[in-house]
Amino acid sequence: MDKPNIPTLPVRQPIRKNIFAIRLTDRERAEIEALAKQLRLPDSYMARHFILEAVAYHRTVQRGERVEGGTDNQRVKLTTE
Prior knowledge:
It is a single chain. By secondary structure, the protein is an all-alpha fold. It has one domain. 42% of the residues lie in helices and 0% in strands. The N and C termini lie far apart (36 Å).
């Protein structure tokens, strides 16, 4: 049986002084706020965590390394065509 792909929960990190702004729809913002509220974390903290988690995932894929989780656990090959 496949394991569910459950992202890790964020851990406290240092105070940051740089701002990275993105535009969201009302629905996207509400989704982030709802999850943050459920986990009792700030919404900006949740958004930062998942953005950095996606960056780490794609960096791993680009290196051609095995990515754990998901449904097939296969090595992903990137092509540039």
